[in-house]
TrEMBL record:
Organism: Hyunsoonleella aestuarii
Domain Peptidase M28, residue spans: 64-276
The name this protein goes by in its record: M28 family metallopeptidase
UniProt xrefs under InterPro entries: EF_Hand_1_Ca_BS, M28_fam, Peptidase_M28
């Protein structure tokens, strides 16, 4: 799937451009294929965002893609899983920035997680709470898609949104962790809810025991990654978040971020971890507490 999504055909998925339109239709078709509906009804998976919202004269209309699995016991309480569907497009020299890790990895991970929830529900074991799969546009130009969802048109009331699990780059290995086992950077897990952090740790210990690296979670992190991906638009509204991230690498925002560089074993394990965390949040008796 990632070899298609991060191919030249999608022209780097720049917000509002033809390649990004191909991307949203590709995502929609994946959900139709696995039978996960849209919360918007009538096979309308697109939350339309007008060009004027982007505050830039050269950006066309764009859209978020929304898919939804309704909870069987507490359907009004919603876990939002997010990733961004856009990338940076074509360089001035004509090279296409495919964005396989950023954020093709998060995009395909979400679709796989949705399929797992769908299979569970089909077998009579659906999640107690609802799950919204939110593929946002405009991340690379300023987190616009997630901001639009949170500030303008939250399809589900923010007060009913239990947590946001945001996936942005989970397919690669950064220089710090080369020649080591499985790892993942977690950002934000303890900022608003110590309970969310503890649940996340417990799920990892039970099923995976990978290294969680909290370097970028430091309040004084000079990279300020906590403010630089789509979870922030939920966190600013007092919704507990976890941002999953593999760190940067030499191919970040370059044409060389291609699908052949992805570590698929790591991508699968990280995706399973996020699924198990979402499953725990969706099925525990009480919604995760805000500190």
């Amino acid at each position: 799937m990632l070899f298609i999504y991060a191919s030249d055909e999608f022209e780097g998925r720049k917000t509002g451009e033809p390649g990004q339109k191909k991307a949203v239709n590709f995502i929609k078709n994946q959900y139709l294929k696995i039978g996960v509906p849209s919360p918007l009804g009538d096979n309308d998976y697109f939350q339309e965002i007008p060009a004027s919202y982007f505050e830039r004269s050269n950006i066309q209309d764009s859209e978020n893609v929304l898919a939804f699995i309704k909870g069987v016991e507490k359907p009004d309480e919603v876990i939002v899983i997010s990733s961004h569907l856009d990338h940076i497009g074509i360089s001035s020299n004509g090279a296409i920035n495919n964005g396989a890790d950023d954020d093709g990895s998060g995009t395909v991970a979400m679709i796989e997680i949705a399929e797992a929830f769908k299979e569970a529900k089909k077998k009579g074991n659906g999640p107690k709470r609802s799950i919204l799969f939110l593929h946002v546009t405009g991340e690379e130009i300023g987190l616009f898609g997630s901001r639009y969802y949170a500030d303008v048109d939250p399809v589900f009331p923010l007060k009913n949104t239990v947590a946001n699990l945001n996936i942005d780059m989970i397919g690669r290995i950064d220089p710090k962790h080369e020649n080591k086992g499985g790892y993942l950077y977690l950002i934000g897990s303890d900022k608003l809810s110590k309970e969310l952090h503890d649940i996340s740790e417990a799920v990892n210990k039970k099923y995976f025991n990978m290294e969680f690296d909290y370097t970028y979670n430091d309040d004084n992190d000079p990279n300020r990654f906590y403010y630089r991906s789509d979870h922030y638009n939920f966190a600013k509204n007092n919704i507990p978040v976890i941002f999953y991230f593999n760190g940067t690498h030499d191919d970040y925002h370059r044409p060389s971020d291609t699908p052949d560089k992805i570590n698929y074993e790591f991508l699968e394990t990280r995706t399973r971890l996020i699924f198990h965390t979402a499953w725990e949040l969706a099925n525990r008796e009480e919604r995760v507490k805000l500190d």
